[in-house]
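so my prof wants the structure for this chain in the tokens format not the other one, which i didnt know existed until like an hour ago. anyway here's the sequence
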Amino acid sequence: MKVDVLTLFPEMMDGVFRSSILGKAQEKGIVSLNAVNFRDYSGNKHGTVDDTPYGGGGGMVLKPDPIFAAVEDLLSRSSAAPRVILMCPQGETFTQQKAEELSSADHLIFICGHYEGYDERIREHLVTDELSIGDYVLTGGELPAMVVIDSVVRLLPGVLGNETSAVTDSFSTGLLEYPHYTRPAEFRGWKVPDILLSGHHANIELWRREQALKRTLERRPDLLDKVELTDQDCKVIKRLKQQDNGC
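here's what i got, hopefully its the right format
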């Protein structure tokens, strides 16, 4: 198996990749572990890989350009179609069953960010899987990626160690986040929603709330029972359910 990790902090991976079960697995030639600094693919002299979000708001959003370029470079040198995994709080909760599924792949590519979020086009047009190791927020995706890699590699034939059991946590926060977008406004024909370019902040906030409700309803409907919803929220959810049922 080949594992590549796209990160701004490749030094975080060095000790983990060389130690314990992962280190032994590499020595045996069972797995190849590689950390790639995607800042090298920024395409600008300043090495900028993030930008402010369209529509306003705090934090920075990871740009699509360097991530697409880094993944495509890895693909050009790979003989197998990889699973491209985005580590994020919104992803499918990682379980032992998922580890077993991933252990059958020949090539895994992990994407780790350190910002407010990812440009939505990375989610929509590049990744094959979105994973979370639990319902909480960390500084970046490196630690979760290490957890997943360790869990997967230990299942490969010839690697010593016992299987780990899945641990399920619950969210203590509210809805899943709405989609993020940043520059460029159009990337490979995929455009940022017009409302985020409108400058109408009240409409933007309404759109973001609806998108958050929609994403939570689609991915984690159980969370809606833990959130204090307004009358408007309930109307939006009712409409989304009717649309889903074709009513």
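also thought this was worth mentioning. DSSP finds nine helices and ten strands in the chain.
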